[in-house]
Fold:
Amino acid sequence: MTLTLKNVSKTVGARTHIHPTDLELQSGTMNVLLGPTLAGKTSLMRLMAGLDVPTTGQILWRGEDVTGQRVQDRKVAMVYQQFINYPSMTVYDNIASPMKLMRQSRSEIDKRVRETAELMQLTPMLDRKPLELSGGQQQRCALARALVKNAGLVLLDEPLANLDYKLREELRAEIPKIFEASGSIFVYATTEPEEALLLGGNTATLWEGRVTQFGPTPSVYRKPVDATTARVFSDPPMNFLTVSKEGNALSFGDGQTSPVPADLTSLADGAYMAGFRPNHLELHAHVSDAMTFETQLVVTEITGSETFVHLDHHGERWVGLIHGVQDLTLGQTLPVYLDPSHVYIFGTDGALVSPAPYAEAA
Structure:
């Protein structure tokens, strides 16, 4: 069972919502759509569901062309950020409602509702109304209603965004278990790289309506194909710095140099971009070959266990994620340290030119 998008695009007037896209999603997989707001995640989901018709291309379900097929005629379930339940119905009747519309037998409805409620830890709440539930329980009810349809494709559009931290963490842990038990194709949209890493499976990174990379989530995170993907899959976004290759040395500015890795010895001399994630900037050197950069502290944000430092490096804005609460003075000159093994090298066109060892270590 597969969902295949072949050269699928969507334009509305002069505006392109989705650029030509090829994707193939396999049965029993979790697939994350990761990108900032307006990257095209919801637009892509609507095309997958059949809520919108693509401007170009084909959508195949189990090998059958369903490009023009109505959403009502597909085995698709959707859960949105704003979870929707029927307030006048009990949790049981909310979950059962899709099956009643499909005219399933009463015994089959009861069996499936109770199985799904058990999976979603809702069995004690079946006789309650949605407004008697917590926010997390209400979202689980909405998820159960989607799952009970036995849909082959389940689309989750930022379903946890409106929940508090504790509830989000609980449901993030539950959703992968739910998807494993159902065997459906799950597609989960999020703006948070951390959420993509927690959910695992595969990730498609999106930027301005383009899928920039698709593959196993750890691989996309560790080896982004270009600077755009690296920027999307980093929160805060990846920092960048102009670097030049001259012979066997990489010059990073501020007088900092690093030996050229073995896999880059054949790379032409010239200008490139170095990229590094905020959590790899440090206030103290922990390796003998750490590079030092003089920066000016612009803003600090203390989260409790960590401190975000916003830095100015000769006009370039960087963000560092430092462990612990740091007593720093705004405007001060702040030396920061970077382990060369955590640096990615990109061409001036943004394409990644250094795989291992840089990418493996990051």
Remarks:
- Residues 356-362 have pLDDT under 50 and may be disordered.
- The CA atoms of residues 9 and 20 lie 5 Å apart.
